[in-house]
Amino acid sequence: MATEITVIRHGETMWNLQKRIQGQRNSKLSENGILQAELVAKALAKREFDVLVSSDLERAVETAKIINKQLLLPHKYNLNLRERSFGIFEGKNFAEIEETYPVEYRRYKERNPEFVVPGGESIQQMYERVTSEIEAIARKFKDQKVLIVSHGLVLEMMMYRTFNIKLDEPRAFSINNSSISSFYINEGNWFLKEWGVIEHLVSLNVLSEL
């Protein structure tokens, strides 16, 4: 037996549309993002879960609440499932970051796992935060089915952990808003069940990649 953890990336936000780095700041769902959340809620209504856990950031909470209108699960908030903290980059697009913080932007693009964005956190710090919390959730809800609503880089860290990908390797897979991914976790062993399911979104053209 293992804990089955299904993870949903939040719906599209206004800052996603503006291509601004959100990090741990709040940005409301766009109209498209609300529709995405409603569609994933319908898809998840065909499945069974024991508990819903979400990041406490507004976009994840809003998505989770839309989903939970269908599922009516106990809903818990978890700070450790937040997006990466991007410090001085938050609220800016990449062109603004490169112009304002050229040295920090260059170091960020190098993807050094130890590089801490000023005022934020490194890839390594986020990886440790996310993977340790996911394992704690798996132990707490042992052999149960957990639904998580979180963020793109949380999903990225989970994939890197599952397949032992080096943190300095660039991501080679997509993470769509309101996609469905599932993992089995048992005593430190991680297995991927499904990744990036978007069947519920494709026909209505409501996709928005990270």
Automatic annotation (TrEMBL):
Pfam families: His_Phos_1. The active site is at 10 (tele-phosphohistidine intermediate), 83 (proton donor/acceptor). GO terms for cellular component: cytosol. InterPro entries: His_Pase_superF_clade-1, His_PPase_superfam, PG/BPGM_mutase_AS, Phosphoglycerate_Mutase. PROSITE patterns: PG_MUTASE. GO terms for biological process: negative regulation of glycolytic process; regulation of pentose-phosphate shunt. Substrate binds at residues 9-16, 59. Keywords: Hydrolase. One of its GO terms (molecular function) is fructose-2,6-bisphosphate 2-phosphatase activity. PANTHER family: FRUCTOSE-2,6-BISPHOSPHATASE TIGAR. This is Phosphoglycerate mutase.
